[in-house]
Design goal:
This protein has 18 helices and two strands. By secondary structure, the chain is mainly α.
Length: 356
């Protein structure tokens, strides 16, 4: 590489994958990589590194880092094209982002630094530095954060402030209101000097007032709908308080199909009827372990209280709230269980054997 760099690189390229590019790095750096006194040697080093990356699809970090060094020293015009090809996902780029950032900062390659800051998800630093290069570049990076509207708004406000305070371009600042849905006229007004007349803001203020009127109308419609819904709910609650059902002597429990009046029972608005013990047995498999244990404890407590002849109504109400808040056949619990298998996994083999 020191004496016949072109012929050496030609031979390496001809051999293709046989020489490991990573093992050739010592040969590439025999000269001082920070001075590159031999321009031809630097050209040939870059040519082989580009071949290894583009043709051989080499992803070794050492190879990519060294190409970055060559680009920052000799070919800064090629640097942005390389960075854009690598993308902006820090987990998938082949180079060391911190090393690349240090190189670009040392050589004052601001646009490349902005790209790397964005790759590292340092959006505020990216926008701040981009404002020293070009406002359009800053605007592009301000839209980069995903699912973070607050950060996006903060970045756009920083750009607007720069345009007003540094560039004194009021018209351009007002155009930001059309370019970003996150900014409102009241957000950027504090950045303007006191001597600015209202003529500069007349159109923006009118547009903002129209949007607020539409928003107020939308809120009014939502409030009317909420009021109607509340009235409907109150009517339904009142009707439920006065609702009753007739129980016939021939009515049967929906679980055991025995006469309903033989023991305590529940009747739901949907007219499903259950004995108390049948309802609890049907409900238990759908409850979590903690709630299941709680129901069983309440049952034991009520049994002991019934034996002593002193039933605590609070205990009874607590049990009813847990087991009778909704119909086990047509309530939300049944809907949530729609994707559960008919046969439990632990009982599957036993069930299969029973069909043989």
């Amino acid at each position: 590489m020191q004496n016949i760099p072109k012929q050496t690189v030609d031979l390496w390229i001809e051999l293709g994958r046989k020489p490991d590019p990573k093992k050739l790095i010592p040969a590439l750096v025999q000269y001082d990589p920070f001075k590159f006194n031999n321009k031809t040697q630097g050209n040939e080093a870059a040519r082989y590194l580009e071949f290894a990356i583009k043709t051989l699809e080499n992803r070794d970090q050492a190879i990519h880092n060294y190409l970055l060094l060559v680009y920052t020293k000799l070919y800064p015009n090629k640097l942005m094209n390389y960075l854009e090809q690598q993308g902006q996902d820090a987990e998938h780029v082949c180079y060391d982002v911190k090393y690349a950032l240090r190189l670009c900062l040392e050589h004052d390659l601001k646009e490349a630094c902005v790209h790397i800051y964005t790759t590292m998800a340092l959006y505020e630093e990216a926008v701040e530095l981009a404002l020293q290069v070009d406002v359009e570049l800053a605007k592009k990076n301000a839209d980069m954060p995903q699912d973070d509207e607050e950060l996006k708004k903060k970045l756009w406000l920083r750009i607007a402030r720069h345009v007003v305070e540094k560039q004194r371009d009021i018209k351009r600042a007002m155009e930001f209101l059309q370019e970003s849905d996150l900014l409102k006229i009241e957000d950027i007004l504090p950045f303007f000097p006191d001597f600015v007349t209202i003529d500069h803001f007349k159109d923006a203020i009118c547009t903002s007032l129209q949007e607020y009127n539409k928003h107020i109308e939308s809120l009014q419609e939502d409030m009317n709908e909420a009021t109607e819904s509340a009235k409907s709910i109150r009517t339904e609650i009142h009707n439920f308080r006065n609702k009753f059902a007739f129980i016939q002597s021939q009515d049967k429990c929906c679980v055991c199909h025995f006469a309903l009046l033989t023991r305590s029972f529940y009747v739901f608005p949907c007219m499903h009827k259950f004995h108390t013990d049948c309802l609890i047995n049907e409900l238990l498999p759908h409850l979590s372990i903690s709630k299941r244990n709680q129901v069983e404890d309440l049952q034991r407590t009520l049994t002991n209280e019934a034996t002593s002849g002193r039933i605590n109504q609070a205990t009874k109400i607590e049990l009813e709230d847990m087991v009778a808040s909704e119909c086990v056949y047509c309530g939300e619990m049944m809907i949530r269980s729609i994707d559960q298998p008919f046969v439990d996994v632990s009982d599957y083999q036993t069930e299969m054997n029973g069909w043989l």
